[in-house]
What does this fold into?
Amino acid sequence: MITAVGFLDMEYVWCFLAALGAGIGTGLAGLSAATVMVPIMIVLCPTFAGETGAYHATAIALASDILGSAFTTSIYIRHKNIDLKRGWIMLVCIISMCIAGSFAAFAVGNVVLGGFSLFLCVGIGIRFLLKPDTSREDTVSHGAGLDAKSLMISLFFGLTIGFGTGFVGSGGGMMMLVVFTAFLRMDRRAAVGTSTFIMTFTATIAFISHSLIDPTIILEDWPILLLCIVTESAASIISARFANRVNNRVVGLVTGVVLTVIGIVMLGINYRTQIASAFHMLF
It folds into this structure.
């Protein structure tokens, strides 16, 4: 799909910027790389415009998530911001479903997968702008056990997020953050640390399953794969350190602005023909 044409090719520049944005999102709010990377790659990079382009882009996003999430988790652990006692059921459920999602993603192809990623990026960005502070006053104590209601919530969302992990090429970080804070009443920083810990494992499994289904991801896309992994890892370390030093509102606003702008621009580029046609009909 790609050849060694050198890092001056604009495609490498777009992939670098995509991975940079993904790393920032991972470190700030535990977002999976697919939220940022997939929209940019399928819209601006010819390599990922083909029949299986979106599938390859999601696999590269998953690979980037592995080290990015691992480094982010280590920083949150260092600040004692992780709560596996309330997150272990989510971990088990997500792992059990992400492989099934990978097969489903390969079956539906670019149209469903690519469009979903674009709208997901905008939706998550607007959500952060409307409510930048995801913390809540009635948070449970660190390491508190799960009651029956929390157990059922963990099972339901764990299974659905797990399927989405494989299908969208997302580590499920944003969805886990919402579940941990809104339903399981975790502190925001503990929720981010826990979600990135889980993403380290789920992204690994989903990437392996993607690669086994379509080995050309590694054999032909390896230059972009390597570039994205290194870039996201470095960006996630810097942004995670920043997130553990500032208040929740600042982190939420920064994340919301970045995702909303990227998503709107990518939607405009991806649907430029339809937008131009609609504009012509109106005026």
User: Anything to note?
Assistant: Residues 1-8 have pLDDT under 50 and may be disordered. The radius of gyration is 18 Å. Residues 46 and 274 are 20 Å apart (CA to CA).
